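Workshop exercise sheet. Pairs work together: one partner reads the sequence aloud, the other fills in the structure field after running the prediction. Swap roles for the next sheet.
Pair: D.N. / O.F.
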Amino acid sequence: MIVLGHRGAGWQHDQLPFWQENTLESFQEAKELNADGIETDVRLYNNQLVLHHDKIEDAPWERNLPTLIDLLEWSDDNFILNLEIKDKDAVAPLIDVIKSYPNKKYIVSSFWHKTVHHVKNKLPDIECGLLMSFNPISTTVFKALIPDTIDTVIWDHTIVDQQLIDDMSNLRHMVYGVSSRTLVSNLDGIISDDLNVHAVGLD
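Structure field:
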């Protein structure tokens, strides 16, 4: 099972100031806590791909936002980068950047499932995941809606159940927002809010 730090690490529990989420400092903290990689948010701002969760206002401090290029130059090739698309305008430039850094380990995800499908069509060798915040009424119907190209579903950990994972065993499954060791079985990965709990060695 892979363990990724949610927007890096440290900012959730005061090791770093909260505004240092999605920064190289928080990613380094995740690496030092033995995470397999990080999850981060990608937006287009001033024609650059930047790492920021919320909608960006034109405030002076935000002019120093870390860029995706900063992350790619910093990270080792075996450090997993889960890039969550927060801005539809970021899709085309994101594809171009990934093509320029082909040796990195990526998971591209979004709540906008059509954008994930588009990325997968353009980059068939990249793992792509659908973010899900609800438990579908019918697993059969939901499975039929997922294109064969999609590799992974990334669930809100509060809504996923074991039956859902078992019924969709043809896909990889991850959960986000995790802060404890209480998890369903047969997960392929977690996006952790507390790497002090998770990155010390889950089987």
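Discussion prompt: The mean pLDDT is 90. What would you look at next?
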